[in-house]
Specification:
This protein is mostly helical and about 60 residues long.
Length: about 60
């Protein structure tokens, strides 16, 4: 879990555009962020296993 202050800081509009960064809204993780789903890989995996994300299927080949 990320610090609450870092999560709040990420939601604010920065002084300069280049200072903006993505953070998972569920857990606050800054790394391994998927823009398409707007969450980190850990939350993405949990929600995919629960069936919360429509269209996401487990790969098998």
């Amino acid at each position: 879990m990320a610090k609450t202050s870092l999560r709040v800081k990420a939601t604010r509009t920065p002084k300069f555009k280049v200072r903006a960064y993505n953070r998972c809204p569920l857990c606050g993780r800054a790394r391994a962020y998927f823009r398409r789903f707007r969450m980190c890989r850990l939350c993405l995996r949990q929600n995919a296993h629960r069936g919360v994300l429509p269209g996401v299927v487990k790969a098998s080949w």
